[in-house]
Design a protein that fits this description.
By secondary structure, the protein is mainly β. Helices cover about 5% and strands about 40% of the residues. It has a six-stranded antiparallel beta sheet, with no helix packed on it. Strand 15 and strand 16 form a beta hairpin.
């Protein structure tokens, strides 16, 4: 009887583990989003994030050709979609927002944080677009008292040069910033407290750019090494733990046999929303696919994406990625100027 019970328990545990690590299969949802209102014209889309209601926010850089506006109107900087793909809100003051928006993140209070590469700003907005907090340029702005203060920004430690992505720790409000989107910049992870005061930093080894970063609930920090085809894993103090390789090879072999980089194989990263955050979703611009990686083992489970192009399921310079509570994946494209949703095939 004990032997039988042991076999049954082993089978159940094995099934549970398999369910956690099973390879999800995705297909594009061509009906999402719905057509934009007011004949809006999008520019390149820098990033995407999902709020507590699974509403999707996209960052529109508004870099349209002047002639495009003969046929429409410039879309707002921030556009919010509901689950069905309807536009439910939009906002963005061009006098406050950087034109080259790069990444966004929703904190535990459903406020949205923006990282803006050229300006060196990290901003916190209410869900509906009121500027609440800003680190960068002239100082630390806090809307609670309308003042600019905090850490002086005349030192390299406290100054952002090219922030690409941001994360806010729900436990203590610490703000993690991937600061180094452009070559020759800080190339670091910087950590500030909830008041914008500098706490610490580290410079990930072997990176020309620090293009993306996220932090899991267990405190592991995942940083994209875009040029060297891997994700580097750290603890929250900056101690290096391991690499997760993101290999790639050209679909068409180059005549000289030397693979040509087309953006990097670890460009943007998001975590699955299951309790253990078991999977990493990584934009691979070199092979123009989305890699799904087991977070514990570092093994690529599967990939999806139909190559370069503008048909549903294809990508033209994918740049931002987010995952909702149901496992749907949202990908924004810079050159492609659109957002696509991919859902799990049941």
């Amino acid at each position: 009887m004990r032997k039988t019970l042991g076999v049954v328990m082993a089978v159940v545990l094995g099934q549970a583990l398999e369910a956690q690590t099973a390879m999800p299969k995705y297909e594009v949802d061509p009906s999402w989003p719905k057509p934009l209102p007011h004949r809006w014209v999008l520019g390149g889309l820098g990033g995407v994030c999902v709020d507590a209601q699974d509403h999707v926010f996209i960052l529109n850089r508004q870099d349209v050709l002047e002639g495009d506006l003969n046929a429409g109107s410039l879309a707002p900087s921030i556009i919010e979609f509901d689950r069905a793909g309807n536009v439910v809100n939009s906002w963005g003051d061009p006098n406050l927002l950087d034109p080259r928006l790069h990444g966004c993140y929703f904190d535990k209070d459903n406020n949205v944080w923006m990282a803006s590469a050229p300006s060196g700003m990290v901003q916190k907005y209410s869900h509906d677009g009121e500027l609440l907090f800003q680190i960068g340029t002239k100082g630390v702005f806090d809307s609670s008292d309308g003042t600019v203060g905090g850490t002086p920004l005349n030192s390299d430690e406290a100054r952002f040069f090219s922030p690409a992505s941001v994360y806010v720790d729900p436990k203590n409000g610490d703000v993690y910033v991937a600061d180094g989107e452009g070559r020759g910049t800080n190339r670091r992870i910087a950590v500030m407290n909830r008041n914008g005061q500098f706490l610490r930093q580290w410079r990930p080894e072997g990176m020309e750019t620090v293009h993306c970063m996220t932090v899991a609930r267990d405190g592991l920090v995942y940083v994209c090494n875009r040029e060297n085809s891997r994700i580097q894993v750290y603890d929250q103090g900056g101690v290096f733990l391991r690499n997760i390789e993101v290999p790639w090879k050209p679909y068409t072999r180059p005549e000289d046999g030397i693979p040509k980089e087309s953006g990097g194989s670890a460009v943007s990263v998001a975590l699955s929303q299951d309790p253990n955050e078991t999977r990493l979703y990584v934009i691979n611009q070199n092979n123009v696919r989305i890699e799904i990686i087991n977070r514990e083992t570092g093994r690529i489970l599967t990939s999806f994406g139909g190559g370069v192009g503008h048909f549903p399921g294809q990508f033209d310079q994918p740049h931002g990625i987010a995952v909702d509570s149901e496992g749907s994946v949202y990908v924004t494209e810079n050159r492609g100027k659109r957002v696509q949703r991919f859902t799990i095939v049941r």
